[in-house]
Amino acid sequence: MAINLQKGQRISLEKENGSKLQNICVGINWGAIEKKGLFGFGGSKEAVDLDASCALYDQDKKLVEVVYFGNLKSKDQSVRHSGDDLTGDMGGDDGLDNEVITVDLARLNPSINYVAFMLNSFRGQDFGAIPFASIRIYEGTPKRVNEVFAKYDIAHGAGFAGHVSMVMGVFYKKNGEWKFNAIGEPTKDRRLEETVRTVTQNYL
């Protein structure tokens, strides 16, 4: 399966051999902000605290629960958060995800119909000020990437500068099959609860 997904595109999660994708990961990699010293000498690093989160909804689009740094596992254990990274890469891009949310679609409570992913800058640091920040949504595990089917460069991508929150994408169930809507849109929200409300109102 080779998917070159565009923002706003909707795809089925069925493979060419007819099997379904089951293990989904959303990984975020970012770096600390570099501050130049007086007259260009010295300098320092400013830690950046980005937060990946996931909201689960039932078929009536009613919010069931949110998995985030303060709630690392869904009640059915199908959604897991790797934990809060408060700094980003302080020594340059190590190529590894700083936070990962994993979803086992087969273990999701059958009442869940929507799984939405969001990103917030906890301290309000502008996406455009971060030297590098990227999101990839892939099949596999945090240690094994099988297939990347959506990527966003939020540090350099058009439209992200001036924002501190975004909606990454939504998995949704239609006629019993899971599909994915790649959203990749910045929002005007400042806090997670505001972004969850935006998803509920505009993206389900």
From TrEMBL:
Transmembrane segments: none annotated. This is TerD family protein. It comes from Mucilaginibacter terrenus. One of its GO terms (biological process) is response to tellurium ion. Signal peptide: none annotated. Keywords: Tellurium resistance. It comes from the Bacteria. CDD domains: TerD_like.
